[in-house]
Amino acid sequence: MNEKYKNFLKYIKDKNIMFCGMGRSNIPLAAMFSNYANKIIIYDNMSKKDLKSRISLFPQNIEYRLGNKSLGNLDMDIIFRTPGMNYFSNELTLAKKKGIAVTSEMEVFFDVCPCKIIG
Question: Is the pLDDT at 69 greater than 70, yes or no?
């Protein structure tokens, strides 16, 4: 395990993390981070019924906010947004103003990748 990745896992220890969007993005990351973070919340506009097959992939210690029109009370330390979620949405802009880190799984990958990235 590379040093940047180790440091990132230390950084998320005891953090409250929200994953917005459970299409194809965020699923493996949310499951893995549940072993490190203080609290994991999964937010998606879909209902629990629609996400049933994906929810079965997660440990029991994850909280769900499903079917909501808004993100609700943003008491998170980090928000991972799906690529389809507008980075400049009102809710994410408010989160950033509150000091919440808004990122994505690809951004973190680029930050901790142990090799040169060309693209």
Answer: no
